[in-house]
Amino acid sequence: MRDPLRVTTLGEALVVMDPLSKGPLRHVGTFEKHLGGAEFNVAVGLSRLGHAVGWAGGLGDDEFGEEILAFARGERVDVSRAILDPDAPTGLYFKEWRALGQLRVHYYRAGSAASRMRFDGLDVEYLLSGEILHLTGITAALSDSCHGLISDLISAANERGVTVSFDLNVRHQLLKGRDPREVLGPLAARADLLFLSEDESGLLFGGGEPEHVRKARRDIRAATVVVHGAEGAFAVEEEGIFEMPAYSVSVVDTVGAGDAFVAGFLSGRLRGWSTGECLDLANACGACAVTVPGDLKGLPTEEEAFALRRGLGAQDAGR
């Protein structure tokens, strides 16, 4: 019998094609297949940190969908409410490494199984069964039906008293010219715990400094707003502003680092830690994630994250 879920999350899990050489995709001949997806990454990250977590989302009734489910089960993530769609594919995206290490991402998720999700097709009671419901702006940007279901889920969680964790996660390719402040802002304003990058804070609040967030927090629901960047992270609450510097590590791949950060912060919350301690664990998890290529490979175990916090290098933490 599994432990009661402490966190649930809903989103799109994807197959990620990572090129083994740099340059335009038309010149790349070999790829390594990984898995990813913001909410899926957070679920795996929380499980590796020792928490009971469930992920729900739309997958194609295809080989890639089966691969994602098998991987999740191997990571002890509950996927009993995943939706297999026989009429739509599992989402896919390609990474492209250009000159000077610039990363481009090419999505193939229009019409995917996840983009067809609707609120009336979800097990809402399951999604509200934990202490925290984690959502992102990525799923809300997939389609009109997905935007509606995220909005309805937030309302249901607010009414039930389930903490809503929301990572803005602006993806301009998915927004297709729509203003993220109009599409995602109203959703973010109803979250209890809001995560933003420095750039996203600037977009939503007019600046990425603590004072910008402090002023903006008066007009939103969130008791805690967390802003993270390359130099560290800070959180703004009624009690004050908490700041924590980043860990110094060798960066290999930054994709998925924000999800590792979120998993670390939520893990600290579940442990009953102070906000400063949550930020420190979040920074440690993000630092571990960037040292390994792939969206999921670098998500640390509890032992690895705690080792980095004790002063071991990220490369030594898993030895």
TrEMBL record:
PROSITE patterns associated with the record: PFKB_KINASES_2
Source superkingdom: Bacteria
Pfam annotation, one family: PfkB
SUPFAM superfamilies (UniProt xref): Ribokinase-like (SSF53613)
Carbohydrate kinase PfkB domain mapped to chain residues: 7-301
Presence of the UniProt keyword Transferase in the record: yes
Keywords, in A-Z order: Kinase, Transferase
InterPro entries (alphabetical): Carb_kinase_PfkB-like, Carboh/pur_kinase_PfkB_CS, PfkB_dom, Ribokinase-like
Gene3D superfamilies: 3.40.1190.20
A GO molecular-function annotation: kinase activity
Similarity comment: Belongs to the carbohydrate kinase PfkB family.
Protein's UniProt name: Sugar kinase
Source organism of the structure: Rubrobacter tropicus
